[in-house]
Design a protein that fits this description.
Blueprint: E1 8-11, E2 20-24, H1 32-48, E3 52-58, H2 61-65, H3 77-86, E4 91-96, H4 99-102, H5 106-117, E5 119-125, E6 129-130, E7 136-137, H6 138-144, E8 151-155, H7 168-176, H8 180-187, E9 191-198, H9 203-206, E10 212-216, E11 226-234, E12 237-246, E13 257-262, E14 273-284, H10 291-308
Parallel strand pairs: 1-4, 2-3, 2-5, 3-4, 5-8
Antiparallel strand pairs: 6-7, 9-10, 9-14, 10-13, 11-12, 11-14, 12-13
Helix pairs in contact: 7-8
Length: 312
């Protein structure tokens, strides 16, 4: 099993030395439902003393089949990989989703899984579909698995304490409505936003609030615009701060930006890859009548952040 210091990335139909326990899914956000699936599969992998492999897709199927309906993603591959590693996954198989793959009969897909990974057990969620037009179902996986050398385990949906079924679409809806706490409960951790720090307009610096301008992947879902408390990790270093996500209506740059202000340091982060975790929403985005009024609000936001982190 994974030492949690290394994880192998396998692309497309590269064969791996089987057998393994294989987990199937899109895993967008790697939320609590996904985690329960992976943890359960991991226990069987330990019992069998075989690797634990997850199989996912890039890009999201709708980006290929119906681009106009494709959702923004809750997690990039790098963000997924970090969570998978912490969950003890040994290998990640990434299948490039193409129209050819979408048109593949489900029986062919199962045959290729057998040839690629030689799984002895395959785990999937209750609503997993595969093959042409999604005609392969979790029930088919369970019924046909023995023909392809594996036993299928289908897990039921995971719910929150108030009975909501946890899903990537439910998390997206919560984030877009600014309900970060609700989304984080379903995710099982603070929502991640990561990217490389790039040169900005230095508007924050002029107000006495120098920020790190994080360039986020175009397909990444950003929450409802506003100010959030956050942590920021760069390599082994962890900082506390707040981040503005939005269009900067008071001093508009014409772009949606992710601007992080750190409370406990002012490191040079230009060109560095950083990982933000959104911990709490302070307030929605607001247009102030002047830069001075914006600065006064930022000072109040900083006081709120210092109190939250026990730095007041």
């Amino acid at each position: 099993m994974n030492s949690r210091n290394h994880i192998r990335l396998v692309w497309d139909r590269t064969k791996t030395s089987g057998p393994c326990v294989l987990v199937l899914g899109m895993f967008d956000g790697v939320h609590e439902g996904h985690r329960e699936l992976i943890r359960t599969a991991g226990r069987e992998a330990e019992e069998r003393n075989v690797p634990l492999q997850v199989c996912t897709f890039m890009p999201h199927p709708l980006q290929v089949l119906r681009p106009e309906s494709a959702p923004r993603m809750l997690s990039t591959l790098a963000e997924k990989t970090e969570i998978f590693r912490k969950l003890g996954v040994d290998e990640i198989r990434v299948l490039r989703f193409t129209k050819e793959l979408a048109s593949m009969p489900p029986e062919v897909f199962l045959k290729q899984l057998q040839e690629m990974a030689a799984p002895c057990a395959v785990y999937a969620g209750w609503n997993y579909t595969f093959g042409r037009a999604g005609c392969g179902t979790a029930q088919m996986l369970e019924a046909e698995g023995p023909r392809y050398g594996f036993e299928a385990r289908i897990l039921p949906p995971v719910q929150t304490e108030d009975g909501m079924v946890i899903s990537s679409s439910a998390i997206r809806a919560s984030l877009l409505k600014g309900r970060l706490a609700e989304a984080n409960i379903m995710l099982g951790n603070a929502y991640p936003v990561s990217g490389t720090v790039v040169e900005g307009k230095h508007l924050g610096h002029k107000l006495g609030f120098p920020t790190a301008n994080v360039a986020v992947a175009a397909e990444k879902l950003l929450p409802d615009y506003g100010v959030y408390l956050c942590s920021l990790r760069e390599g082994r270093r962890l900082y506390r701060g707040m981040v503005n996500i939005g269009r900067q209506p008071t001093l508009p740059s014409g772009e949606v930006t992710v601007e992080a202000y750190l409370l406990d340091a002012s490191p040079d982060l230009y060109g560095k890859y950083v990982r933000l975790r959104l911990l709490k929403r302070i307030r929605p985005e607001h247009r102030f009548e002047s830069a001075e009024l914006l600065k006064e609000q930022l000072e109040k936001d900083r006081d709120t952040a210092r109190t939250y982190f026990g730095m007041a």
